[in-house]
Amino acid sequence: MHRARSIGVKLHARMLSTGKPPTPGHCVNSVKLHARMLSTAKPPTLGLCIIGDEVLNGRTLDVNTQTLAQHAFAHGIPLQTVHTVPDSAERIAHSLSMLTQQHSAVFTSGGIGPTHDDITYSAVAGFFNRPLEYHGETLARMHRMIPEGMVRPDPRGSGAEQACARMALLPRDARVVFPCDDLWVPVVCLGGVHVLPGVPRLFRRMLAAYVPRWWPGEEGMRGVRGLRRVLVATGMRESALAPVLERLQGKYAAQGVRLGSYPQWPADAPKSARVVVSAVGTAEHSLNACRAELVHLLHGTVLDDTE
């Protein structure tokens, strides 16, 4: 992993110092590294890059992180790192350089529209040293699904038609998947990076349709079990229960259980639920044993995970 990170940093440093994309040889090395990372025995993880000035300046609330986190949790592949970057090719490349070295797969959200600041496809193409080219099936779906009277894509048409066509200008050699039959918007995949739209409604729908199709067959992710969570509420103060949690974490860590505590602050929160303790893992017997000890040692009560 250290060697992978070193090569990724050198690759990114070359891009920043020269202003040029990496050579094909560098790109091939980065793709080979990614393949080797996926083939290791280390449990797979996800990274997410949220792209958009509007998120960073507070105009738009990011809800896509939670959406991906929920899907990742359900499928047993935790989301571990989230970057939020502006509409900047350099910042997107910097984020991808770090995320692709650290995680089995990376998702992006945002920046795939028709305007000048929608640069995600070009940034991803540049990062992997691929040219952009019009994707025939995407153009055809756009023509078929965009209602008459609205602007349709034409790479040689008017300014508006060319702008519309930009949304079908994709990195060469990318895998293009249409997870929703009634949407022309694709998921674009290249080098372990999966590009999705930023509109929450589209992100949610496409992810729900895409993940079950992609997850089971992805190298390094076969046979991964979904994560489970058990919750125990207690009236103890967090400082009082801290030694108990530390001891139990040490006991169950080898079984893949992670513990966390979350104070409850609403004015109407019952005193018996001052703190909610969470235990997360994949092995049901380990979680059940840990939950039983939490209930006993914290004088707690079991909560439903939806509460």
Protein architecture, described:
With 307 residues, this protein is an alpha/beta fold. The protein folds into 2 domains: 2-217, MoaB/Mog-like domain (Molybdenum Cofactor Biosythetic Enzyme, Chain A, 3-Layer(aba) Sandwich), CATH 3.40.980; 228-303, Alpha-Beta Plaits (2-Layer Sandwich), CATH 3.30.70.100. It is 43% helix and 19% strand. It has 11 helices and 12 strands. Strands 2-1-3-8-7-6 form a 6-stranded mixed sheet, sandwiched between helices. α1 runs antiparallel to α2, α5 crosses α6 (120-127) and α10 packs antiparallel against α11. The longest helix has 17 residues, at 2-18. The two termini are 39 Å apart. InterPro entries: FLAD1_M, MoaB/Mog-like_dom_sf, MoaB/Mog_dom.
Summary of the model, kept short:
It is built from eleven helices and twelve strands. The protein has 307 residues and is α/β, with parallel strands linked by helices. β7 (187-190) and β8 form a beta hairpin.
List the helices and strands and how they pair.
Layout: H1 2-18, H2 24-39, E1 46-51, H3 53-56, H4 64-75, E2 79-85, H5 89-102, E3 105-109, H6 120-127, E4 132-134, H7 136-145, H8 159-165, E5 169-171, E6 175-177, E7 187-190, E8 193-196, H9 200-214, E9 228-234, H10 238-252, E10 258-263, E11 275-281, H11 284-298, E12 301-303
Parallel strand pairs: 1-2, 1-3, 3-8
Antiparallel strand pairs: 4-5, 6-7, 7-8, 9-11, 9-12, 10-11
Pfam families: FLAD1_M, MoCF_biosynth
Organism: Coemansia interrupta
GO molecular function: FAD diphosphatase activity
